[in-house]
Here is the input.
Amino acid sequence: MLYDQLFVSMERARWDLSRDIDFDAIEPARLTPRWIDTVREVCAFQLASLRASEMFLGGFRTDIDFCSFVSVWFYEEMEHHLVLRKYLEHLGEVVEETELPRLRISPDEAPAIDALTLRFFGEQRLAQRYAALAATVPERVLGRIFTILAAGEARHAAAYATYLRRAVERHPAALPGILRLALWTMRGADEPATAAPADTRRAPATLREDRHYIRRMQGLYHLLAPDATTVVEDLPALRPAAAGAL
Here is the structure.
């Protein structure tokens, strides 16, 4: 099982909340209100792993291997939430337990393989975002936290890639659907954000024909189908495609 190898590798890389974060060294004066708001936002966003775990355990209920991995992923994601919540508490910004249900984010339902593809890209984006925050934050302890979180999300993305690769090995016909969704996701990331009442949401991606994106996808194509000899040059119907369960 892939879980056996992933458990060992992720355990070796795991950090310790009580040992590796020096909360007593926090310098609150270095943080602006905007930075504190950013920490609260990220702390709340990490609760999305609650709903994602529910979706995975339901959609992949017959895949013991993947569900076993989800248990490790969920633990680490909730540790990300906890370290940020503890950081806020050291700043006097207490997140009350009664506030947590309101912060919980519930993504839309998606077919199993689509959910796996979206999570693969989501973990990569989080890793990039946290790395950028770590490079710019003026407070040293928070910088270390974001560095640790970035590394964790990158490991999660790599783990999800192994399960996507296995899915393609078992069901080669699923590859076009995965690539269509990947293309849609990348285009959505390139769209500018637009302000909406009470929050900020991504504008819907414009599904336009553009081989620039196809070239960007070659790495993903060969990652998921390393033994393939053909190169995907065109993907008709560029929209999220429902694929069967793995």
Remarks:
- The domain at 2-172 is CATH 1.10.620.20 (Ribonucleotide Reductase, subunit A).
- Residues 28 and 91 are 6 Å apart (CA to CA).
- The chain has eleven helices and two strands.
- The first strand starts at residue 193 and ends at 196.
